[in-house]
Amino acid sequence: MSPNGQATLNRDIIVDGLWRNNPVFRQVLGICSTLAVTNVVLNTVVMCVSLTFVMALSCVTVSLLRNITPRNIRMMVQTLIIAFYVIIVDLILKAYWPDMSRNLGPYVGLIITNCIIMGRCEAFAGSNKPAASFVDGLFNGLGYSFLLLTISVFRELLGMGTILGMEMPYFSTLWDKWIIMVMPPGAFFALACVIWVCRSFKTKEQG
Amino acid sequence: MEIDISAQMWAAMVTCFSAVFTSNILLTYFLGMCPFTSVSREVKTSIGLGFAVIFVMTSTMAINWFAYHYVLVHFGLEFFRFILFIIIIAAFVQFVEMVIDRYSPRLYQNLGIFLPLITVNCAILGASLFMVIRDYTFIVTVGYGFGSAVGWTLAILAMAGIRQRLTLSRVPPGLQGPGITLIIAGLMALAFIGFTGVLQ
Q: By the CB < 8 Å criterion, does B130 face chain A?
């Protein structure tokens, strides 16, 4: 933090987003809309790319408009900015990849209410310069994506014996498939395990 | 316009039942997780939030149905639905807050703090988007909205009850808080899968 309360563009923002203040296992925010698509790796990749795109660009936009947004309606303005980018993503998916759009169902639209984007806009972009906000949004999105990708790799591998639809040796033949991993409870268990592992690392670092 | 009301009512009841048990919006679609992990510490607050969600979800689903079918489809602006739905939800919550504050200050004290939280509850927007994707009729929509909200409340109440007991048990340090909540949610989701065979 520099003297005037503005965060400077530096390594700290990146490390914060990726690990130290990771949206998923530190803050446990915004897992609703993305946890649902972690049963297949491909869906997760598309969802994470969309989310990172929306997050980075809405952070920039909120930051650009921060001085002319009236304070009492800022939540509404932020929601509309996020919704604008989500509509773009939704239309692109519908036009160029209709199958994927159908697979993801309502979850693309639900990026709007993903609390992590709102949280970053409110906590960081609302009071910082556009460049720093962009980096913050981007790396929070990446920090979020890498955890969800980890979860989805495990779920698809253990549940169906494939990764990205390709059959894996051993897992697709000898492995007794854990169907429960591709069903909803599997997502809860997988996320809990990832949080457990990451937080244990964290406690060691501090201790 | 001839609509078979009794068949519609029956369909609405089935949808409502399935939204509560077999396809619970929280445990199978992961919607509304944020308040679920943060508010579910006490049974009393969970009840308050639950009732607020039931009321807001049922009403906004009905309003959203009309707005979608008579405004957006009429003008061919379906891609605008995200913005319209979120504005309707936010406006409705604000309106209800003002009405309750004016006419029943006591209810406002109990329910008021939960209302703003609801605007960002993804379960409500999610249910509205499901309504569009699955092409529900009006009566079924109301049934679905009510059922989803009741199912959500049921899940958060059960979770709050379990978490109160949890304060007495020893949880590994890395798993405390959200970690253990998710494991419990997973076990609850497993239990709810048991309902799957009830319908059909």
A: yes
